[in-house]
Structures are given as structure tokens and as C-alpha cells.
Amino acid sequence: MLLRRILDDTEAAVGVLDTELRYRYVNPTLARMNGVAAAEHLGRSIAEIVPDIDAGEDVMRRVLKDGRPREIVSSGHTRAESPLERRYWHGAYHRLEAPDGAVLGVVGIILEISAAREQQRALEQARERLALLDAAATRIGTTLDMDTTCGELADFLVSRIADVATVEVFPQTGSARRPGGGVLRLRRAAMASVPELREAVRRFGPPGSYVDYQPGSTIPRCLDARLPIIENLLADAELGRSAPQPDRVAAYRKLGIHSALVVPLTARNHDVGTVTLIRAGDSPAFGAEDAVVALDLAGRAAISLDNARRYTAEHNAVVELQRAMLAEPGLPHPDVEIAHRYRPAGRRVLVGGDWFEIVALPGGRTLMAVGDVMGHGLEAAVEMSRYQAMLRVAASEDLRPDRILERMDVLLAQVGVQRPATCVIAVVDPSEGSCLYASAGHLPPAAVAPDGTVVLVPVPPGPPLGMGFGGYATMAAPCRPGHTLLLYTDGLVERRSEDIDASLARLTSLRLSGRESTEELLDRLLDDVAPPAAEDDFAILAARIHPDRPEG
Questions:
Q1: What percent of the chain has a predicted confidence (pLDDT) above 90?
Q2: 233, 252 in Cβ contact below 8 A?
């Protein structure tokens, strides 16, 4: 009697089964755990009471056979209500014997370990999510280019949780968000998919195209709520309302698309765009955990995209500023043929402060200058304008090239420029067939002979401008009709992976056509020397005394 009271009051679930594994005793805790009254257990098997659990009856039979106690972990659901997705139990089973050694059955002592299991599962999911985010951090946002970042995000999502992923962003310029009639317009910045769907999904709009979404479709609803939306196994009518346009339904069905997840791209409390994930064929439908993962990845990517958008806006402003400043250089005297080029760096690189200028001097002489302000960005572009202005002031005083540099250095110190600059000046005198040079730490000019050979002009370099050191020298060299003089900044020839001497050797190894116009010569030079994806800005000036000009 005392033992029964102890078993009835314990918080552990206790059950006694006979040799046929049918219940002979069940305490109240086990009855509550199974959701079946204790009396209804008696005479029935475990499978009859809890059919959704593999309770390990084969293990219990081994206990009956050899008498060795054993432990079992089982999972599933009983008839008792539970909010848990899955429940777990730990059971210890012992053989019951009569005083004469006859086997009577087994007794099981069972503890529910669902909470511990759920905590362990949650911990494992958290670790998996952190590992996923760590992997994403190395693959998404590697540049400040928006479309590259969108492509990295789409590729990563397809490699982990989707069959198709598209990233769409609000247009920066040109197209309104809502062109009319409540339609939402986004630009498809990137699309990725598993190989078997790649060609088919491109028909829905390749990267770079604009997609208009009907009012009430999934994308506008996601952006309005700023929450993920999961849509699984929709009927045709519902799918038509969720799609960008109702006529997409048949195409979606043909591809076997059955599950979609849309998450917003939101950064610093404003919308950047959306990410749409698709599953098709045998892939499982999206669930809540997929939405959490996708939202985490989209949130991190949105910060990178917003940074890229801000950078792109500044980059474009600086490029336009530079072009405006360089659009109207001075004009040479008629006896000198001039051509010039300016090329900004690629979108992934900060704009620099490269500049050039042309000034007609008295006596038929023409001054040319090329300079490079140290540093990049808007500040370098603004400083560039100061150097150009100071050159014009100093050139108006009709000084020798070294004195022009000295004068510029003094004036720049007075206005307090923040960034030094290199500069090279060449004053071409057609009447004398000569040229005077001076350099403030700049790369040497090059001369192209009529036969196309290229040689460097060894102008002695002085200190960069803006440092107040002075100490410049003028050098004279022949500049005969038909020869072409080249002034350039280092972005034309320099490569980060090689020494500057090797870069200059590449220039002098060229065989250009000295018979072409200066415009054509610069086109050839850009084709043969300029890097396809410029790592830095560069500016070039080409000058040639007309061949029919008689030498003095």
C-alpha cells in the first residue's frame, strides 16, 4: 500500500507491463502524459494507447529476456494536448521477477525531456544561423557596387535555401516608384537559380529590366508591411493576385513553382527593395524558420546596398564635377594640334583628382599642364579646381615653367590646400621647334616620333606642389614638327602589381603611328596601354606642331 502511494504521488511517469507488454499499472503522471485515464490503460498495449510514438517495445522484450535494465529515448505525440512541435521522453526499464525467479513483466520510469530537447534544438538552430551569417558576411557586400552586391546575395540564397532568388531595388533615377494606376516599379538587379531552371526563369525578366507589380500583389504588400510573406500551394486565383501580372500563372505552374517567400530589403528605416525566393518541384515548402533566415540575410545585405547607393551617388557627383571642370580647357595656338582624354576610374573605385589645362601664351607659345591631386573622393575633386585656378594665374605672368611651379606653390600655401599634387608643365614654342619642361614630382612626359617610336623625356622632378618646398628646374628639349608630346597621369600606365619602371617600359615599347592625328593617336594609346577596368583616374594631353610649320 505504501509503495502504491509513493508511485501515485511521484512526478515521474511509472507504468508496469506484463510479459505481453500490456499495462497492469499506470500512475497518474503517466496517465496525464498520455492523455488517457489510468483505468483505460489496463490490459492494452503501448501502441493502442500512444500510436504516434515508437516506444521501443523491442528493447523492452530484450529486458524481459535477459534481465538487463535498458534506457530508451523516444519522441512523438501522445493524446495529451501540447504546444510543442515534437515531444521527447527518456525511459528506464527494469524486469520484474517473483520470489521464485519467475518473470512477471517490466516496469518503466519515464521522464519528459521535451524542454531540454527544444532548448538544444533552438541552440543548434542558432549556431547554424550564425554560421550561415558568417559565411554570408564573406560573400555578400564585397564591393560598393549595388548590382554586384545584389548578385552576391541572390547566388548565396540559391546555394543555401532557394531554387530561384531575385533581388529587386527601387530605381535610383529615371523611373518613379509608382508610374501610375497604383503600379509599383522595381528594377531587377540580380537573379540566380538552380541550373535546371536558369533559362526558363530569365523569361520573367533578366537582370537590368524593370518589373511592374499590380496593386495588391505580394511585392507591394511586403514593402507596405515591411514583413516577410510566405505563400505556399496557392490556387490559381490567389496566385494570379500575388504575381506581378495575372498572366504569369500558367508559366509558374509549368515550372512546378509551389512555394514563395518575399522579404523586404530595409536599411536605416527606408526601403531599398525586396528579395523573392522560390521553391519548385520536389523542394519542401518554405516555413517560418526559412523566413527568419532570409530576413537576417536580407537585413545585412540591405546595409551593404544602402552604403553602395550612397557611394554611387557621391561617385557620380564627383565624376560630374570633374567633367564640368575639365570640359572647357583653354585653346592652343593654331600651329599646335592638341587632343586630350579624361577617364574616371571604374564604379568600384573612388574618383581621384586628375586634371589638365591648356593656356595660349604670347609669341605663339602654348602651355600644357597635367596634374594629379593626392587622394580620392569629393575633396580631391574640389582641390583639383584650386590647382587649375592657380596654374592659370601663374601662367598669365608669362614665367618660365619652373617659376610657374614656384608661383603656384606659394599661392597654394596662401589658400591652404589640404592635399599635395604632382604636376608637369610643357611650353611648346613652334617658332623655335623646342619645348620647355618643369616637373613637380610627376611622371616623365613621352615623345612619339614620326616613325611611331616612344621615348621618355628625362625632366628632373621637384617636390610635389602644396608642400612649400620649392626647388624646381626648367629643362629644354627639341620639339620638331611631326613629333607628338604626351603628358599623362599615373592611372594610364601604373599597375598595382608591378614596379613603376615596368609600367613605363610598357609605354616605351609601343610602336604608335606618328602619321595619325593626335585624336587617333590617343585612341590607339588607350587601346594598347590603358587597363580595361581602370584602378585609378587618368588624364592625357597630346600636342604636335603641325608638320607644315617651318622650323625657326
A1: 32
A2: no
